[in-house]
Specification:
Elements lengths: L1 E11 L4 E6 L12 E6 L9 E4 L10 E6 L19 E5 L12 E5 L4 H13 L4 E7 L8 H5 L4 E7 L8 E2 L4 H7 L7 E4 L2 H13 L7 E3 L4
Parallel strand pairs: 7-8, 7-11, 8-9, 9-10, 11-12
Antiparallel strand pairs: 1-2, 1-6, 2-5, 3-4, 3-6
The structure holds flavin-adenine dinucleotide.
Length: 223
């Protein structure tokens, strides 16, 4: 089954990332952290579907929100995102996805891999009594998506890692084994990992070497 979503609003949240709000059609049900595949309802683009994660909560009945990073160098779907205007339509598939809420833990994201954690952390914040740690890796400070919102979440510890900028107030580096051992003390907890596949594989291996159990590492393959 497919759903036609109509864009209500689009606004930048960083220099290359956009928050898109759509009408929510009846029957579009999902768990927090899940994604859908959607294609632009435009000539030549209807077969070009990509996976995008709902960043609004399942209980938000009046809207569906996505946060999408645009890659102008790809000549793909996301290159066209900044030009979308309210009223534009996309064709979405049934929601699916392996990253769902498994309770408190440490969330390790690279770039746009933050999107399932936006939803899960919003859900924890809404319930109150959050006890989570976000380790968010980016190339530069200006790439950090929704930093103000994370900083304002009570009970969320944040560690921002910046790999390609020398004059940073944040921690310089990547989420490798040494970095993770300096940021995390308890490896007997749930870890959520999302980002480019190479980062996910490297972080999963590092966590296992540091004592984390494979069945407590929640990832999405094929990002
Ligand atoms: C479960 C899941 C959820 C996701 N959720 C989100 C989300 O919420 N937000 C989000 O922003 N993204 C998300 N993604 C990633 C998203 O689906 C797209 O893969 C990504 O945004 C790139 O799409 P694209 O059409 O721009 O380019 P692509 O499909 O990656 O590429 C189009 C073309 O560009 C060229 N190309 C590819 N890579 C490069 C490169 N590095 N340099 C130059 N040219 C290149 C190739 O010719 C390619 O055919 C998710 C992915 C998964 C698997």
């Amino acid at each position: 089954m497919t759903f036609s979503l109509t864009l209500q609003d689009i606004k930048p949240v960083t220099h290359d990332t956009y928050q898109l709000t759509f009408d929510r059609p009846d029957g579009f049900n999902f768990e927090v952290g899940q994604a859908t595949h959607f294609a632009l309802d435009q000539s030549g683009w209807r077969d070009e579907d990509r996976a995008f994660t709902m960043t609004s909560l399942p209980g938000d009945s009046d809207k569906l929100e996505f946060v999408i990073k645009s890659y102008p160098s790809h000549d793909g779907v996301t290159e066209r995102i900044p030009a979308l205007q309210p009223g534009a339509q996309v064709i979405a598939e049934e929601p699916a996805g392996a990253i769902t809420d498994h309770g408190p833990g440490t969330f390790i994201a690279g770039g746009a891999g933050i999107t399932p954690f936006i939803a899960i952390l919003r859900s924890h914040a809404q319930k109150g009594a959050m006890d989570c740690h976000l380790i968010f890796a980016n190339e530069t400070e200006k790439d950090i998506i929704l930093k103000d919102e994370f900083d304002a979440m009570e009970g969320l510890k944040t560690s921002y890692l910046v790999s390609d900028q020398n004059d940073t107030d944040h921690t310089a580096g990547r989420p490798d084994k040494d970095m993770l051992s300096s940021l995390v003390t308890d490896f007997d907890q749930t870890f959520y990992v999302c980002g480019p596949q190479k980062m996910v594989d490297a972080v999963r291996d590092a966590l296992k070497e540091l004592g984390a159990s494979e069945d407590k590492i929640i990832t999405e393959e094929g990002w």
